[in-house]
Design a protein that fits this description.
The chain is of the alpha/beta class. The protein has 20 helices and 18 strands. The strands form five sheets. It has a seven-stranded mixed beta sheet, with helices on both faces. Strand 10, helix 11 and strand 11 form a beta-alpha-beta unit.
Length: 472
């Protein structure tokens, strides 16, 4: 080993010396000693690797202790924070899959805390004083809201698809339009879920056109299910033809086949009445005669992650008896959050104002404009010329595969902080104590106000304070 490299390695401090270093005291303090020591060892190991991997001509004559302490401070502070953290969503995407999809409302959180912090009736029947079923808690409520005979809740919509096909079509054929074999976020591919269920895929039609006769020609003695799938944020426009659910239901009845529709987002309110793109509601789909309707709890419904399975009581009963159901069942917190969310739908005006997802989707532009201008004035007063703020028009999105053809017009703050490039400003906002997630567009950082929740404005201003403090 060359002398310069060996000298730099010898200059690396001991773990105990760094744990006692006065410049690291605030960062080390909140951590258990064992965790702090592990973080220090990791950073020292990274420093050794850098020294050993660098060519001799790139090695400095002395170890830069300032850089080492900076890296240690950042790593120790990061270790003190939870990995799953709150952020400010300023992207304008309401159901942001990467940011946790739908935030829960106040009534929902209150019910979760009540149930999770105490013993509860998860599987206990108070009337009989005996074991009950966790599936009973939501049955009456969902029947009232949707008219469904049978109800089953699992832990997500992919699980709902898996369970439905495994129960109804294990070793049998499932007929689906080729144009609906979609891939959605996180590399979720419908054909792979179908294969995992034990069902046999039988695709019909072409990518852009599928007719009822295509389904009928595919039916054999091995056919068990006719499947219709919401295309999520994928659309084929122009020269197209799609088989309606009503046509599929009629065909299914003629051949004694089950008809299943995966609605994806699923909605209990006709959003077109609020100026948004029309999405088929759960009630409309059930009324059209589908044996099973599957949808997510944390998309347009605005609740927790869950997969809801509604439909024919006998068909749902068969799913309940599947041993796989136990592996896919929801926990007490999911059921509490889902019940609290669903109860709001008993009064639609309450649902539209108290479920954050629905509230954000339907916020009028004048309201967003007033909010943006008021916040811009506050930022200018606090930061002056150090932070240039403009109010600009923006286009948000529903997200979660819902309403893909309908951008949500709104307002955003366009931020510039010299001398930072837009990408650097966006990155620094992400690194704030409470990260602010925006986007870079047209050479500025945009913070879309549609998805900035009540209480987030102070957090946003604190994040900007951090960014500006680092520049002084």
């Amino acid at each position: 080993m060359d002398p310069k490299r060996a000298s730099l390695l010898r200059q690396l401090p001991q773990v105990d010396d760094l744990l006692r270093h006065p410049e690291l005291a605030l960062a080390v303090g909140p951590l258990p000693r064992s965790l702090a020591a592990a973080v220090v060892r990791r950073i020292l190991a990274e420093a050794r690797r850098t020294i050993n991997a660098s060519p001799p001509e790139a090695l400095p004559p002395q170890l830069d202790e300032t850089v080492l302490l900076h890296n240690l401070r950042e790593a120790l502070c990061a270790a003190a924070k939870p990995m799953l953290r709150r952020v400010v969503n300023a992207t304008g995407v309401v159901i942001h899959t990467n940011l946790g999809r739908s935030p829960l409302g106040a009534a929902c959180l209150e019910q979760v805390l009540e149930v999770a912090s105490r013993y509860n009736t998860l599987e206990y029947d108070l009337a009989r004083g005996a074991r009950g079923s966790r599936q009973d808690h939501l049955e009456g409520l969902l029947q009232e809201l949707t008219g469904a005979d049978g109800v089953l809740v699992v832990n997500n919509n992919a699980a709902a698809v898996l369970l439905a096909l495994n129960t109804l079509a294990l070793g049998k054929e499932v007929v689906i339009s080729r144009g609906q074999l979609v891939e959605i976020g996180g590399s979720f591919r419908l054909p792979e879920i179908m294969a995992a269920s034990g069902a046999i895929l039988r695709e019909v039609g072409t990518t852009n056109k599928t007719y009822l006769k295509d389904f009928e020609k595919a039916i054999t003695s091995e056919t068990a299910v006719l499947l219709k799938v919401h295309p999520s944020n994928f659309r084929i426009l122009g020269f197209t033809h799609e088989v309606t659910l009503a046509e599929m239901v009629d065909l299914g009845r003629r051949y004694d086949l089950k008809v299943v529709e995966d609605l994806g987002s699923g909605c209990l309110v006709d959003l077109s009445r609020y100026g948004l793109e029309k999405e088929p509601t759960v009630q409309e789909t059930l009324k059209a005669g589908a044996d099973l309707v599957l949808f997510s709890g944390d998309k347009l419904l605005g609740g927790p992650q869950a997969g809801l399975i509604l439909g024919n009581r006998e068909v749902v009963g068969a799913l309940r008896k599947n041993p796989m159901t136990r592996a896919l069942r929801p926990d007490k917190m999911t059921l509490a959050a889902l019940e609290a969310t669903l109860r709001l739908y008993l009064e639609e005006p309450r649902a539209m104002t108290e479920i954050p997802t629905l509230r954000m989707l339907t916020r009028p532009v004048p309201e967003l404009d007033r909010q943006a201008r008021a916040l811009a004035r506050r930022l200018r007063r606090r930061f002056g010329a150090r932070c240039k703020v403009d109010v600009v028009q923006s286009e948000g999105r529903a997200g979660g595969g819902a309403l893909p053809q309908a951008p949500l017009p709104g307002r955003a703050l366009a931020l510039t902080i010299p001398p930072l490039a837009p990408q650097e400003l966006e990155a620094r906002l992400r690194r704030a104590n409470t990260p602010v997630i925006g986007r870079v567009e047209h050479g500025v950082v945009l913070l879309d106000l549609r998805t900035v929740l009540p209480g987030d404005q102070e957090t946003l201003m604190a994040a900007l304070e951090e960014v500006l403090a680092d520049l002084t």
